[in-house]
UniProtKB/TrEMBL annotation:
PANTHER family xrefs: DIAMINOPIMELATE EPIMERASE (PTHR31689:SF0), DIAMINOPIMELATE EPIMERASE, CHLOROPLASTIC (PTHR31689)
EC number: 5.1.1.7
Keyword DNA-binding assigned: no
InterPro entries: DAP_epimerase_AS, DAP_epimerase_DapF
Keyword Amino-acid biosynthesis included in the entry's annotation: yes
UniProt source species: Massilicoli timonensis
Keywords from the named record: Amino-acid biosynthesis, Isomerase, Lysine biosynthesis
EC primary class: isomerase
Catalytic activity: (2S,6S)-2,6-diaminopimelate = meso-2,6-diaminopimelate
The protein's name: diaminopimelate epimerase
SUPFAM superfamilies: Diaminopimelate epimerase-like (SSF54506)
Family label: Belongs to the diaminopimelate epimerase family.
Record: active site: C66
Pathway note: Amino-acid biosynthesis; L-lysine biosynthesis via DAP pathway; DL-2,6-diaminopimelate from LL-2,6-diaminopimelate: step 1/1
Length: 222
C-alpha cells in the first residue's frame, strides 16, 4: 500500500490515495509510532471530479475537519496537478486552499460562537488560559502576548496533545479578535511552529509551510 508522510508544524499525517473506509484497528496500527508508520492521523484522498477526503484520528475515530490535514491534501494534489489553488470537500463541507511554493493557505469560514470561549471552526474548540479536561471539545491553552502574537497548546480529541492544530489556531485567533486581544492579522505559535492568520470579511486565512517528509510502501499484515 503506497503512502505519503506529511506534516504541518509537526502535526503529522499518513496520506493514502484511497476512497475505501478503514477499520479502526488498521488506523491505530498505521499511526502507532513504534510498530507502524506513526502519525496523528490518516488522510484518505479520493481524486474525483472534486477532491474529497476522509480524516481519521490516531485512535480510529473520524474527524469532521482538520486545518493542517486539509492543507497537506492540497499540497499533495496541487503538486501533482501543477495547480496553485484547489477546492477540497470533507464530509460535505468544501474548503478552498491556495499553494504558493510550500506555503499553503486555508480559507476557512468564520467560526461559530457556541459560548463565550467555545467555538466551532470545523470542530469544537474550548479556549482556556490553563488546561481543563473536556470530553466534548478540543482544548486550546492560549496565551495572548500582544495584539499580533499568541501562543497555543492543543489537546485534541482522539489524539491528545499535538505540536500544532489548524482549527485550534483559527478558533484562538478569532477569540482574540472578538475580545480585542488581537488585531486582524497575527502570528500564532505552537510547539511545532507558527501560522500567519488574517481576518477577512467572511473568512479567516491560515498560512504555513507544508512538508512532504517521505513516501513508501506499507506491507499490509494481519
Amino acid at each position: 500500500m503506497k503512502f505519503w508522510k506529511y506534516h504541518v508544524n509537526g502535526n503529522d499525517f499518513i496520506l493514502l490515495e484511497s476512497s475505501h473506509k478503514m477499520h479502526p484497528s488498521q488506523i491505530t496500527m498505521l499511526c502507532d509510532r513504534h510498530k507502524g508508520i506513526g502519525a496523528d492521523g490518516i488522510l484518505c484522498v479520493a481524486e474525483e471530479e472534486q477532491v474529497r477526503y476522509l480524516h481519521y484520528n490516531a485512535d480510529g475515530s473520524v474527524a469532521n475537519m482538520c486545518g493542517n490535514g486539509i492543507r497537506c491534501v492540497a499540497h499533495h494534489i496541487c503538486t501533482k496537478r501543477h495547480l496553485s489553488k484547489i477546492e477540497i470537500t470533507i464530509l460535505g463541507q468544501t474548503y478552498t486552499v491556495a499553494l504558493n511554493d510550500h506555503i499553503a493557505t486555508l480559507y476557512a469560514p468564520i467560526p461559530k460562537v457556541l459560548e463565550e470561549n467555545r467555538y466551532n471552526s470545523g470542530v469544537n474548540h474550548l479556549i482556556v488560559s490553563a488546561y481543563t479536561q473536556s470530553e466534548d471539545d478540543n482544548v486550546d491553552v492560549v496565551k495572548y502576548r500582544d495584539d499580533t502574537h499568541f501562543e497555543m497548546t492543543t489537546y485534541e480529541l482522539g489524539v491528545g496533545e499535538t505540536l500544532s492544530c489548524g482549527t485550534g489556531m483559527i478558533a484562538a485567533f478569532y477569540h482574540g479578535v472578538r475580545n480585542q486581544l488581537l488585531s486582524h492579522m497575527a502570528i500564532g505559535t505552537s510547539k511545532g511552529g507558527y501560522n500567519l492568520l488574517y481576518l477577512n470579511d467572511d473568512s479567516i486565512c491560515l498560512s504555513s509551510c507544508v512538508h512532504e517528509v517521505y513516501s513508501g510502501n506499507w506491507n499490509e499484515r494481519k
